[in-house]
Specification:
This protein has helices at 4-8, 21-31, 40-43, 178-182, 195-200, 210-224, and strands at residues 16-19, 80-88, 97-112, 116-127, 133-143, 168-173, 232-239, 248-255, 261-268, 271-281. With 283 residues, it is an alpha+beta fold. A 10-stranded antiparallel beta sheet has the order 1-3-4-5-2-7-10-9-8-6.
Length: 283
């Protein structure tokens, strides 16, 4: 049974990590950059001689790993879903750095018996030497098997698209090997690797990591609007449906009045897979 007190008090320690250009390049390859090896825009994120780093790479750094599988927390891990991701990137990532992380569960709300619980984890990733913040993020997890514990109710947030046709669309074809490459950036959940585990969870085959679709959104939407993917300063979305490696994501994008932010959704065919999308760029 879920242990709310233990979850809210969980000590994540003070994780540190060192990354080098190879790690940032592997992340970009996991998203699918470089499918056209002659694309100069993609090569910016793959050439260690003058490397630009995708800001969303920061969400893979100093991760707390599979902490929520700790039996003392009582979470039904098999029914856990990564529901949403929000992050801001105040400073660009250098090609290599020593980074320090913090993490804290900031809320655990109750949707009721049979409807699950919602956990919000906040993290920061900063330069270990200078203290410069590379990323502040908020990860929302839906604990589908753990509702009805008597916690506070889940607040509802409002999000709506402009009442007009999308200003731009962009298609991004994922590789059949995408999940296998992306997991090398630190997501070791066997749901993205093992066909038997995927089948047990009700999927036809291993699914693509939600954070891979998230990172793809940052790169694909930036390119569609003529913005620099390395200048993304805000990226957020909800995970509305699964993506299978090999699927083609179609992003529909609405610019804001200032043209420095936009909203988006993504579909695979007629099926919505990302919504609540927001993206912004540094000037």
């Amino acid at each position: 049974m879920i242990n709310p007190e233990a979850i809210l008090a969980h000590d994540f320690g003070s994780p540190r990590a060192h990354y080098v250009p190879r790690d940032a390049i592997l992340y970009a390859l996991g998203l699918g950059l470089g499918s056209d090896p002659l694309d100069a825009e993609d090569l910016r994120f793959l050439d260690e001689r003058a490397l630009a780093v995708l800001p969303s790479f920061a969400v893979t750094l100093c991760t707390p790993g599979m902490w929520i599988r700790d039996p003392a927390l009582g979470v039904d891990f098999g029914k856990l879903v990564h529901a949403a991701q929000w992050a801001e990137f105040p400073n660009p990532l250098p090609p290599s750095a020593e980074v320090a992380g913090t993490a804290q569960v900031v809320s655990l709300t109750d949707r009721g018996e049979g409807r699950g619980a919602v956990l919000t984890l906040e993290r920061t990733i900063a330069d270990a030497a200078s203290g410069a913040i590379y990323c502040r993020l908020r990860q929302t997890l839906l604990l589908r098997g753990d509702g009805g514990f008597g916690g506070p109710p889940d607040p509802r947030s409002e999000w709506a698209l402009p009442a007009r046709a999308a200003d731009a669309t962009a298609d991004f074809a994922t590789s059949p090997r995408a999940a296998l490459i992306y997991r090398l950036s630190g997501d070791w959940n066997p749901l993205h690797l093992d066909p038997a585990i995927a089948a047990k969870a009700g999927f036809p085959r291993p699914i693509l990591q939600g954070l891979a679709s998230y990172g793809i959104a940052g790169a694909a939407i930036s390119r569609a609007l003529g913005r620099d993917p390395a200048a993304v300063a805000l990226l957020a979305c909800r995970f509305a449906g699964i993506v299978l490696p090999g699927d083609v994501l179609r992003f529909s994008v609405w610019r804001s009045e200032t043209d420095n932010t936009a909203q988006f959704v993504a579909h695979v065919g007629e099926r919505k897979v990302l919504d609540g999308g927001e993206i912004g760029w540094r000037d």
